[in-house]
């Protein structure tokens, strides 16, 4: 039996195989927190004017932003497209 060549027959193919992009693993599915109503620490970027608006009344501005976002999602139409309830 003959020995295989030490180098691949096509060096370009070997180089491309060595540097193929690595596939990223799928992001883990995030399960909802066990305790309802628990707040989560996040970092977001918002316009300075929006931040100034919520901070002008003093402490509690994060709660006011949360309330405004909650109103926005509660006012969102349902997936069926009907607003009748």
From TrEMBL:
Classification via Pfam families: BrnA_antitoxin (PF14384)
Low complexity compositional bias, start-end: 9-28
Region called Disordered, residue ranges: 1-35
UniProt protein name: BrnA antitoxin family protein
């Amino acid at each position: 039996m003959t020995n295989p060549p030490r180098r691949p027959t096509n060096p370009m193919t070997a180089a491309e195989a060595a540097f193929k992009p690595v596939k990223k693993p799928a992001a883990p599915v995030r399960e909802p927190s066990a305790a309802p109503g628990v707040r989560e620490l996040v970092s977001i970027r918002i316009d300075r004017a929006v931040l100034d608006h919520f901070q002008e009344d003093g402490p509690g501005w994060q709660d006011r932003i949360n309330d405004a976002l909650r109103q926005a999602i509660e006012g969102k139409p349902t997936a069926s497209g009907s607003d009748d309830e």
